[in-house]
Amino acid sequence: MAQLLRGKVSIDPRFKHVRPTVYALSRVNFSGFTYNGNNNSNKGGHRRQNFYYQEFLRGPKFGGYQYYQSSRGYGMLVGRVLRGVLKLRYLVLGGAIGGGVTMNKRYEEWKDGLPDMKWLEEVFPDNEKWGQFTRNLLAMKDSVKDSIEIDPRLKQLSENKMNEFREWFDKRLDNAIEAAETQQNPQIETTKEELRSKNTVNAKSLSAEDSRRRVDTLQSQVDALQTEIMNVQLKYQREIEKLEKENRDLRQQYLILKTNRKQPQKKRIKKSLIDMYSEVLDQLSGYDTSYSTADHLPRVVVVGDQSSGKTSVLEAIAQARIFPRGSGEMMTRAPVKVTLSEGPYHVAQFRDSEREYDLTRETDLAELRRDVEIRMRNSVRGGKTVSMDVISMTVKGPGLQRMVLVDLPGIISTQTVDMAADTKESIKHMTEHYMSNPNAIILCIQDGSVDAERSNVTDLVSQCDPLGKRTIFVLTKVDMAEDLADPNRIRKILSGKLFPMKALGYFAVVTGRGRKDDSIETIREYEEKFFKNSKLFHGVTMSHQVTTRNLSLAVADRFWKMVRETIEQQADAFKATRFNLETEWKNNFPRLRESGRDELFEKAKGEVLDEVVNLSQVSAKKWEELLNDKLWEKLSNYVFENVYLPAAQSGSTNSFNTMVDIKLRQWAEQALPAKSVEAGWEALQKEFQHLMEAARKTPDHDDLYDNLKSAVIDEAIRRHSWEDKAIDMLRVIQLNTLEDRSVHDKHEWDQAVRFFETSVKEKLEHTEQTISEMFGPTTTQKWLHWRSSTDEQNKRKYVKGELDKILTSDTKHSPTLSYDELTTVRKNLQRNNVEVETDYIRETWYPIYRRHFLKQSLNRAYDCRKAYYLYTQQGTDCEINCSDVVLFWRIQQVIKVTANALRQQVINREARRLDKEIKEVLDEYSEDDEKKLQLLTGKRVTLAEELIRVRHIQEKLEEFINALNQEK
After folding, report:
1. Neighbours of 433 (CB within 10 A)
2. pLDDT number for residue 704
3. Fewer CB within a 10 Å sphere, N or C end of the chain?
4. In terms of C-beta distances under 8 Å and separation of at least 24 residues, what long-range contacts does 657-665 make, across chains too?
5. pLDDT at position 789, please?
6. Which residue, 8, 58, 53, is CA-closest to 26?
7. Secondary structure class of 347 (helix, strand, coil)
8. Residues whose CB falls within 8 Å of the CB of residue 68, separated by 6 or more in sequence, listed in order
9. pLDDT, tens digit, for every residue of 833-882?
């Protein structure tokens, strides 16, 4: 229609700006009907809208031309529609620009508050989403542009703004994405630099002493945490190994039960000769620490200065990197015994573990090194740097020479501040200890890259083996000495003419290229290539004196030669020791079988658990009697001092009952439940200890286990705590019981009277003892027991005489003395030349009045014995005041229900929980050899332990000798 009108109708310039609006109105909706200019339908409800639309388009003629205009009302409508459309344009464009600016501001605030921009890429939309959003905005702009013809100036302005906004937004988006991808932010980096500079300034401002103290504190905390982590790792490793062993045993038992056959005898696996020898050494470990009588069996002891390469030599011989490494740090902190033997697979295994490490896999090697480090750190306790505890492992693999090597910590010349004070001497003593074995083969390691004069180990070796009959000298790191050393000097070293020490043989080896990641195979190839091509060793030494392979062959040959020469002597020595120990046992313990600590511990464990089972055999009546006594023992003092005496001394029955109700409720809501639980726990302990004492009196009791039993029970009791929910349960029961104030029958009344009488008599007896100590012996005691009073007691007797007069004149006297009474007593005493202070009179008055009051209470109890029916009929108006009997009836009832509740909990819950805790303590002690050594003592135990150990060693030696003779 617009084209039709444009071709046939000339429009006045004044109305030219209306054209876009008229065209837009051709698409407006009238009451739900959209007219698009091509619809000529007059059907139904559309006719009226079509008519209005045609009338709207039709207008008067101007100068012979037909113009399309509306009436005045329609003109106003056009103006409003035009204004709305123009407003829509500014809303769309202004909203887009304003929204972008607001988004930029929010984005800057959000980004500045972030410490890290890693996750921005996940939260922020990617380029594709932003591109789609931009395209949608452009499509919206084009649609509006097609519908509305905008003023060229406004149009140019909006396009410029839109382009600026698009460029700015794309730039900010690219920067944000780039920052998220690189995980860097200039502002964050600037902030980090500022903080780092501030910390540097603050650090400089601190004094050196404060800095050192803080560093020491942090270092100690780190060391403590590291030690704790390693202990936990070692504990879990042991638990895993224990569970694996139990799993294998259970699987075997299951198969036996499934097949319903007798358990087959375990197939005896034939052990290798070196494994049998290693077991003998393990048994001897710690038996004879001085090497003075028995343990003279050969070992290869690897000694050398720190960082001289001795651990690398051992790894080259074992053909695996099995030890942890550190740059300049002492890594070997305890002796490591490595048993090498030939086998089809290259594996390693600790002596006290069944796990095998595959040495061909890097992950297993890393775990092995970590476990070695954990064991080393676990062995150094109490601030020590090195330990004598031996870490034993076996390494098997193709081509390995059979021998036993012991790697020792390197000898140090300077002790650092982070080491224990005795580290240097401890390492020296440990080295001398192992080398003092007359049959030990000393593998002396010397660093070839340093001057020989700096060596500390050669002097020690010369002192222990001056003739060099069991020493093998090894020069390491010779590849580093190629450009430094003099060939003549190397010749002197390898011929034994440079050092004063003597040796069986001299070897030169290369154990690495200075790279931690090199494999043993790579190092071996490098070593062979070096000795083949090096000018330093050309014509200097014979071929059998170089390479690690020749060294291992020579050491193994010497090792087995010394084993064959000494093994018979060691077997004879242990045979004689065994005979002497057996004779001593028969003379001291003729009717007892020798039992080691492990066997004795298992027996004691069974007896302790039997006593726990006996707790369930205690009758309910006995439990209630015990709990009743313990509860009253815990509660009696509070009942008398905080409830009964303050209320009874108030002087009125109504005030007595009111005060009693208030105090009992406060007591039941706060202290009573906790005290009741405490009484129940003490009753359980008392009964358990009573059972243990009864077991000690039996004829077959063995006092050897008493210390162990007591320690286990004390530890379990210390760990045990009553269930928390018991206090809440008791609180409800006790509050409900104390609410009852009516004695139910004559039997309960009589019980309450007896309970009241007994309690008052107990307190009266204690008061009489206090009075006796305060006022001295009576006349009868003076004559019969020849006792006399002190001056202080005589002085108090004068005061007592005056106070008795007050009570005689007023039997219902209040608990306190008035000022006039105190003045009268002082004046009367002054007449007898006795000078006392007011506080002295009050101190004397307290026990006298207490005895007087308790005697009155006891008389009321006698009067209330037969007053039950009178009390039930008259209640509080009864002529005889029996409120205190009712109070003690309420106390008696709450004790009964509390004892019953505690009895049920002891039988159903607490005894079983205590049993569980005792088992846990026993399991822990069973894994702790130090605890067994501490708790199972005496000549019987030590003699049996030594006899069992010597017998076992002698049997192992004979077994090894037989196998050695067969191999010959």
Report:
1. 17
2. 86
3. C
4. 657/876, 657/883, 660/883, 660/887, 664/738, 664/890, 665/735, 665/738
5. 80
6. 53
7. strand
8. 5, 9, 22, 57, 58, 59
9. 888 888 999 999 999 999 999 998 898 888 888 877 776 766 555 567 78
pLDDT score, position 34:
38
Q: Measured between alpha carbons, how far is 324 from 313 in angstroms, rounded to an integer? A: 14
Alpha-carbon span 201 to 490, nearest angstrom? 54
The structure's pTM equals 0.53
Instruction: Report the residue count for the chain.
Output: 968
* 882-900 burial: b if 16+ Cβ within 10 Å, else e: bbbbbbbbbbbbbbbebbb
How does DSSP classify residue 443?
A: E
Tell me if 578 sits within 8 A of 949, measured CB to CB: no
pLDDT at residue 134 above 50?
yes
Q: Pairing relation of β-strands 336-342 and 391-397? A: parallel
Cα end-to-end span (Å), the chain: 122
pLDDT score recorded for residue 900: 92
- Going through 227-383 in order, the beta strands assigned E by DSSP cover 300-304, 336-342, 347-350, 357-358
Q: Are strands 300-304 and 441-447 parallel, antiparallel or unpaired?
A: parallel
Average pLDDT value for the chain: 75
Q: Which residue has the higher pLDDT, 881 or 13?
A: 881
Say if CB 331 and CB 197 are below 8 A apart. no
Question: Residues 460, 303: contact at Cβ < 8 Å?
Answer: yes
CA 328 to CA 47: how far, in whole Å? 102
CA distance 706 to 708: 5
Query: What's the rounded Cα separation, in Å, for the pair 421 and 393?
Result: 30
> Tell me, what amino acid is at 281?
L
CA neighbor of 527 nearest in space, from 502, 539, 540, 509:
509
Contact 408, 311 (CB under 8 A): no
What is d(CA 147, CA 141) in angstroms, rounded to the nearest whole number? 10
Which two three-digit tokens encode residue 830?
A: 């002054």
Q: In whole angstroms, what is the distance from residue 642 CA to residue 621 CA?
A: 31
**557-585 burial string, b = 16+ CB within 10 Å, else e?**
ebbbebbeeebeebbebbeebbeebeeeb
pLDDT of residue 490: 73
| Cα(55)–Cα(70) distance, integer angstroms | 8
In Å, how far from its chain's centre is CA 85?
72
How far are the Cα atoms of 405, 543, 642, 759, 887 from residue 637, in angstroms, in the given order?
72, 95, 8, 10, 15
**pLDDT tens readout for residues 546-602:** 888 888 999 899 988 888 888 888 888 888 888 998 999 999 988 888 888 888 888
Helices (H), 835-938: 838-863, 868-874, 883-905, 911-926, 929-935
Q: How far is Cα 343 from Cα 340, in angstroms, rounded to an integer? A: 10
- Decide: 936 and 605 in contact? Cβ < 8 Å: no
The β-bridge partners of 505 are 472
Is the pLDDT confidence value at 615 over 60?
A: yes
Greatest alpha-carbon span in the chain: 159
Q: Which two tokens stand for residue 171?
A: 């730039």
Greater pLDDT, 451 or 364: 364
Q: Could you say which DSSP state residue 453 is in?
A: G
Neighbours of 447 (CB within 10 A): 23
Integer Cα distance of 292 and 295 in angstroms:
8
